[in-house]
Fold this sequence. Notes:
Layout: E1 9-16, H1 17-27, E2 31-35, E3 38-43, E4 55-60, E5 68-69, H2 87-98, E6 123-127, H3 135-138, E7 145-149, H4 159-172
Parallel strand pairs: 2-6
Antiparallel strand pairs: 1-7, 2-5, 3-4, 6-7
Amino acid sequence: WNGIDLLPWDATQVREWRDVAAEAKARGVEAFVGRIPQIIVEKGSELPIGDKNRKYKGRVVFQGNRVKDQNSANALFEELGSSPVTLQAMKMCDAYGLFLGHTIQQADAKQAYTQTKLGGNIKTWVRLPRNRWPKAWEKKDLKDPVCRQVLNLYGHPDAGGYWEKHCEKHLHSQ
């Protein structure tokens, strides 16, 4: 899984969604369920065929626009939200870097969101694409299997907020 020690979901604890939903209703708590679609893109498609920088890249995301709760209603998230950098803030940083003796740097974090656990009080469950089912699942008579999402994934409505909290914690620890 792209060099990550942990999968973004815990496939060892597979359950039927109907059982998870029934348990949540009985306990008076919320549970969310969403899908994990697979995306593949060709990077460098504008380059000549055979160029080493032209390659296919795959990823999985959380399909955050079609999440349901235990009652099959649209899920309402905590709306942690993250504050995207404004264009004015970026221009100000660029201007700072133009002053004599000053420099600026920018970096991207590799597999950023999956560096942090998915938080919150409401458990999020995921439906995996059939080709991502572990072999152990195939031996069971599963109709609608789900497993817990444990790591943050792009597409989850609260993913940006969890990532922002994770970054702040690390920045303040320095």
